[in-house]
Amino acid sequence: MSRSSSRAAPGDRAALAAWHAGWAVSAALLALVGGWLGAVDGAVFYGVLAMAVPGVAGLGLLWRDGSDQRMALLWVWGAAAFIAAGLSGGLTGPLAGFVFLPMAAGLAFGGTRAVQAGALAAGTATLAGLLAAWAGGPGVHRPELAAVSALLTAGAAALAVRLSWRQHEAQLAAATAGTARVETLLAAQPALMLVLEPSGRVVAAYGSPPGYLAIDPLFETGLVDAVHAPDRPRLLDALERAQAGHEGAALFAPRSALDRRAQLIVRRLDDAPGGRLIAQISDATTQYARELGLEVARNEAEAREAGKTRFLANMSHELRTPLNAVLGFSDIMRQRIFGPMPDRYGDYADNIHQAGRHLLDLINDLLDVAKIEAERYTLTLERFDARETLSAAMALVRVHAEEKGVSLSSVLPAEPLDVSADRRALKQITLNLLSNAVKFTPAGGTVTVTAETAGADLEVVVADTGVGIAPEDVRRLGRPFEQAGGVEQRRQGTGLGLSLVRAFAELHGGRMTIDSTLGEGTAVTVRLPVALVARAPAPEGGAEVIPMPMKGGG
């Protein structure tokens, strides 16, 4: 951003004021000496005094200077020349040289506008003198005075040209110094800056290029030729974006160093001829290597995660088959189908069956988690009454709840809860929530299942009066293998139940929320957008017309 001012430098103001003062002194001496010698008298004397007025007025530039003040002073010069020409007979009189003094003043002020105004004022004074000569005859014949006025005007004009040239020299020196400072700044920047034509030809180069990118070949063959062939489309696309007024960027490998990378940022120079572009090139090898390393590490992590998921899925299948046999034989022993057995062995069979059941549940949960993480779990949507699924899940945990002394109840609507969802997933959601609630609710507590529809959503709430969850643990729950509570509570579960609930809810496009108070209980809400909203049937005979009562009398 640059700023400029029309106010002249102190040195220029002083020089202009001195030029005006010199002219005022010269005009005053001409009037006094010429009057003493008898060469300047009458109307000519007053014409010479009139020309001294703008010289005196010019001293005001020492206190206030600007374009407006200079233009006003030029009009004073024009008025003085107008008066002098009218009193002395114009170009035919002895003060003919003074007619051109407004133009000399315009030259002293500098600038096209000032010179044009001075020329206009000189022309006006010339016309005034011509009219005066026509009206009153030619001026008096005083060749000595005419020669002196011409010499004074020539001297004033020569000094004015010198002042104007000094101003131009100062401006040129300032511009040259500014250009040198800008070039020094550009040359000192750590990146390479190029001025390009739309074709990619390099016009100018500044700054420090990367060590693997030579400058001279860029001027000879252009930027595009210095880029590795597969990266050229990106470079050309960046140049096209810059020509369209946007910022273009491209990462490329130079032909001279294919193991390096350079970053290009290019924009359009709006004021430059031919739609030129300005580009900055910096070394991006380190950044590229870092990003490449991160990408490789991410791919390796994803591969390990996928391998782990496949391993869990395969091992779950391999473990489930022999475990089902263990459960089957232990159940036969518990029921004493093949005859009585000692109570001690019966207790062993019960322990084997409970441990096997727990292990099977863990394997099933692991299998579901593995499928969901591997994005291989596919929802099987079907239409059914959600009350049946919720009741079936409650039946599975009711025996355990009664054995523990926990009251299990439900609040379900009398009307069907028609949904379009995965029946197994909804049952697993309810079963996991009920199992957790019964597991962490002491004897005498209650677990309540509530279900209702809200628009297109099915809302299932499982609330208990159990031990509750600490606020800092609530934020963690829902992730695989995350558990809350102390060591004894953690031993009762695997940390997969709520993570499966959340995963199944999100697969349906829903969400799970937990509201819990430590020592008072927990309420887990699952909201799924699966409800089928039934429309009320139309009344027989079409719509019913209800008459509206009339207001007022009549």
Q: What features would you describe in this structure?
A:
This protein has 554 residues and is an alpha+beta fold. The chain is 54% helix and 14% strand. The chain has 15 helices and twelve strands. The protein has a five-stranded antiparallel sheet, sandwiched between helices. A five-stranded mixed sheet has the order 7-9-10-12-11, with helices on one face. A hairpin with an 8-residue loop joins strand 4 and strand 5. Helix 9 runs antiparallel to helix 10. The radius of gyration is 51 Å and the shape is elongated. The chain starts with 9 loop residues before the first helix and ends in a 26-residue tail after the last strand. The N terminus and C terminus are likely disordered.
Instruction: Tell me about the largest β-sheet.
Output: 5 strands, antiparallel
Distance between the termini: 81 Å
Rg (C-alpha, Å): 51 Å
Low-confidence stretches: 1-7, 535-539, 542-554
Major β-sheet strand ordering:
2-1-5-4-3
- Mean pLDDT, to the nearest integer, reads 78
SSE arrangement, N to C: HHHHHHEEHHEEEHHEHEEHEEHHHEE
